[in-house]
Amino acid sequence: MDIFRLSFKNLKRRKIRTILTMLGVIIGVIALVVLVGIGTGMTSYMKQETDSMMGDIIIVNSTEGGPPMASTVSNAFLSQNAVSQIENMSQLYNISVEDDFISQINGTSMYIMGTTTWSQLEFNGTPGVVITKNLVDQFGYKIGSNITIGNESMTITGISNTNSNMYLVMMDISKALPLNNYQASYVTADTRSNPETVKDDVQNSVNGTSAYTQSDEANQINSVMNVITLVVGAIASIALLVGVISIVNIMLVNVTERTREIGVLKAIGFTDREILSSVLLEAGLVGFIGSTVGVVIAVILLLIGLTVFSQQVGNINLLSMVPFWLIAGVIGGSTILSILAGLYPAWHASRLNVVEALRNE
Question: Nearest to residue 51, comparing CAs of 67, 27, 66, 40?
């Protein structure tokens, strides 16, 4: 009988105990894959949104301290003169001026977003002045209603299809700039040459500005999301570690119950190394099968989540949430940890004295 068949046979003889031991690994793997998958999915989504909304470079006020992250409002603006200088630079084209700021409407704080990229937004109606659904629910606005921002009265031309946690009014940049003293939040543009070279030219030519390329923005997103994913993954790994530790206990119990059987195996010619390998293989199989089942369940849960919350998650896809490295890392890591957990029970089994083991009842 080869070692592989012997290990499988031992696992099958105690099915309930094996399943319960695997359950700890399965739960830990599900928690790890789901939480890390959400983190990687969010990272991928933010990169896609950033790439689609910005050009080769983005230019901000130098006091900003870094490229603006999505869904943030800054108090540092580009002056009208700085925007004019940027628009006249021959190295830039497809220039888009964006303006995000906070204003008051009927005593309530509103997030005003001036834009030229209406193609990136989903809404009913026409471009011009578009509000979110929560403004409709709160104030009873509808398409054609007048809304007063600052001292300006405007006609609502559309209602956004996406849900928002803040009151948001989107309007043409030509309408937004006068409300913010003709100051812009940032400017995006494509470059006619190397973005890194143009970035330096912009910073040297236009006082009080900082320019960032797509790679700079991607690095900032990565640095933030990597920390979040690492913390979440570490917390989820505790559940997996508990499941792996239980393997030590169960394998010791199995070895103790099979003391006489191990003595018989040694008596008929099994070496200490073969006994050691058999027990380690059992532990490894528990980790491998448990982690594989856990990954499958986690993928199913993520797929259900993407289907149920399809409107909220946008363009996040399953492949970006569960990349190959995550699957391979979780299954491989769980298997290795399980083998390590089985080291002491396996060593204990291999060191059993044949005579003493055969006397065991």
Answer: 67
> With contact defined as beta carbons under 8 Å apart, do 70 and 80 qualify?
no
Q: What gap in Å lies between CA 268 and CA 332, rounded to an integer?
A: 34
What is each CA distance from 28 to 33, 35, 250, in whole angstroms? 9, 11, 17
- Distance of CA 133 to CAs 72, 139, 240, 304, Å? 20, 10, 42, 26
- Separation between Cα atoms, residue 306 and residue 260, nearest integer Å: 53
Give pTM, 2 decimals.
0.65
Sign of the Cα pseudo-torsion (233, 234, 239, 241, in order): positive
Per the CB < 8 A criterion, the answer to whether 320 and 313 are in contact is no
Let me know: does 24 contact 246? Beta carbons within 8 Å: yes
The residues, any chain, with a CB within 8 Å of residue 301's CB and separated by 6 or more, are: 30, 34
Angle at which helices 214-257 and 259-267 pack, to 10 degrees? 80
Nearest to 294 by CA among 24, 40, 37: 24
Per residue in 73-122, pLDDT (tens digit) is 556 788 888 888 988 888 888 888 888 888 877 777 888 888 877 777 77
E strand or H helix at 92: strand 92-105
Q: 159 forms bridges with which residues in the sheet?
A: 124, 131
| pLDDT confidence band for 293 (50 / 70 / 90) | very high
Question: What one-character-per-residue DSSP string does 33-88 give?
Answer: HHHHHHHHHHHHHHHHHHHHH--SEEEEEGGG-SPPPTT---S--B-HHHHHHHHT
CA-to-CA distance for 78 and 83, rounded, in angstroms? 7
Q: Name the residue among 67, 145, 50 with its Cα closest to residue 105.
A: 145
Distance CA 135, CA 102 (A): 15
Of the candidates 199, 214, 183, the one whose C-alpha atom is nearest the C-alpha of residue 89 is: 199
- What ranges do the domains of the chain cover? 3-49+221-359, 55-213
Instruction: Please report which helix (H) or strand (E) contains residue 293, including its range.
Output: helix 272-308
